């Protein structure tokens, strides 16, 4: 499995992103190790990872517990545990898609429908649906934007379930009908003369 220079650079950048939570000295040492990795070492590491079942395949087959927003026969939409904002979803195709231009239109339409559901319930200022390559496959991200700076943060399962409840709330608009009472013509009482027996 020969990787392109771009794929190797992307793998190194993903490794660099994973070490951001280390202390500065540990991060510096880890970055030196990442930079010193040969192309062959990166390829071997990726080959080992692909031997294991990939996380998105496990989510799509429901082997990993996740908070599902919606699902159809082609894709599953789950709330992201590393959310950029409230309601951040990943739309994962049930069949692996490796190239951005090979994403089926029906999955894109599904992601737009999930976005509309989020837009209607959470009321973000705008909503972005974009294709992203993660863990070697293409997924769609539905990211609500509330006008604040987007920053990735870990979200607990209970928080995700609360967001799901907000998304799934069905708002019923009450229509008040005014009942108009018909004005009837005044009834004339018939007055009879009093009869004496």
Helix and strand arrangement:
Blueprint: H1 5-18, H2 24-36, H3 39-51, H4 55-60, E1 68-71, E2 75-79, E3 82-83, E4 89-93, H5 105-122, E5 126-134, E6 137-145, E7 153-154, H6 157-168
Antiparallel strand pairs: 1-2, 2-4, 3-7, 4-6, 5-6
Features:
197 residues, alpha+beta, HIT family, subunit A, 5-stranded antiparallel beta sheet, two-stranded antiparallel sheet, 6 helices, 7 strands, elongated
Number of DSSP helical runs = 6
The arrangement of helices and strands along the chain is HHHHEEEEHEEEH
Given helix and strand content, the structural type is: alpha+beta
Strand adjacency order, main sheet: 1-2-4-6-5
Low-confidence stretches: none
Spatial gap, N to C terminus: 121 Å
Question: Judging from the principal axes of the Cα atoms, what is the shape?
Answer: elongated
Describe the structure.
The protein has a five-stranded antiparallel β-sheet with strand order 1-2-4-6-5. A two-stranded antiparallel ribbon has the order 3-7. It is 39% helix and 18% strand. It is of the alpha+beta class and 197 residues long. The termini are far apart.
